[in-house]
Design goal:
Elements lengths: L1 E3 L9 H11 L9 E3 L13 H13 L2
Parallel strand pairs: 1-2
Length: 64
């Protein structure tokens, strides 16, 4: 799964993005799902808040 924050709120074509990744990496490394989120967010120390992103991904997978 890939959580992405679009740079200009442009619509993201999930199939096109997955095909792009498969063209550059081994296909097993490509995400099966792409989820657009408003912001990646940062923790209080300025680093990416991976725990929150993982929880968000799990919550979204349950709804798929």
């Amino acid at each position: 799964m890939a959580l992405i924050e679009p740079s200009h709120q442009a619509p993201i074509d999930e199939a096109e993005l997955i095909a792009h990744v498969k063209g550059r990496l081994a296909s097993y490394k490509a995400p099966k799902h792409v989820i657009t989120i408003p912001t990646i967010g940062r923790d209080t120390n300025g680093k990416v808040d991976y725990r929150r992103l993982k929880e968000e991904a799990a919550r979204r997978v349950e709804s798929i």
